[in-house]
Amino acid sequence: MSCDPRAVLTRPAPAPDLTVAYDHHPDQIADLRRPTGAGPARRLVIVVHGGFWRAEYDRRHTAPLATALAALGHPVAQVEYRRTGQPGGGWPGTLTDVLTGVSELPRLAAEAFPDAVAAGPPVLIGHSAGGQLALYAAATMPTAVGGVLALAPVANLAEAYRLDLDTGAVGALLGGGPAEVPDRYAACDPRSLLPISSRIVVMHGALDRQVPVAMSREFAAAGCAAGSDVNLIELPTCEHFSLIDPESEAWPDVADALRSITRELPGS
């Protein structure tokens, strides 16, 4: 086990089985991984990577996570999307890319692995900024999302802007703060989109220095008060990156949380 929690971001992992395009832009693609073994078909798991929506972070840093998910028997798609600092990234391209990917990838994965992908909406696993995108997709397309495992999500964009997380990341995504572009925050801030009908499990490390755990505490409490099915799992000795590291002490908890979502879904 590495002493550097960021080591997972550059750790080598097996190449995906297939890369597919869900739209026409070079970043509107996803890496697909066939589940290991010969178990029953399961719902697709779509991994939405983080990196504060910035161009320098792409889906490849979630390859160890995706490989581990496939080893658990899940068909997996690592969705890519246009990010800030790229043409078409930010508002609204980053957000609409994720909606399109979530809509198209179950069909594309089923075509690629016809015996491995069960019918039905996928489960989304979103980390950090990817957690915001996964929650946004669930709120915007409730029938297209079977459940969300949000790992240290940026679940309150207005608060993240106020805290200046990652030095202006939210402003770069939305083109300003809540006072300048309030309609954009209203459209995609998970905190403002409650209640969300999909089953949501939020997992957050108490030692997280990138996204404060208080944000998940408040989101989960507000979600429950609004009638959403939101469960918060707080890990007292975990920081930000361990949640996507299958070699970390947090991994068994992540795998258990995913099982808690998928076992309630038909065909999973």
Structural account:
The chain is α/β, with parallel strands linked by helices and 268 residues long. It contains eight helices and eight strands, in the order βββαβαβαβαααβαβα. The radius of gyration is 17 Å and the shape is globular. The two termini are 31 Å apart. Helix 2 (93-112) packs across helix 3. The chain has an eight-stranded mixed sheet, sandwiched between helices. The longest helix is centred in the middle third of the chain and has 20 residues, at 93-112.
What is the tally of beta strands?
8
Order of helices and strands: EEEHEHEHEHHHEHEH
Arrangement of strands in the largest sheet: 1-2-4-3-5-6-7-8
Helix content: 25-40%
Estimated structural class: alpha/beta
Largest sheet: 8 strands, mixed
Rg over CA atoms, rounded to whole Å, is 17 Å
Report the mean per-residue pLDDT as an integer. 96
- Distance between the ends: 31 Å
Number of helices: 8
> What is the general shape?
globular
Briefly say what this structure is.
The protein has 268 residues and is of the alpha/beta class. The chain is 32% helix and 15% strand.
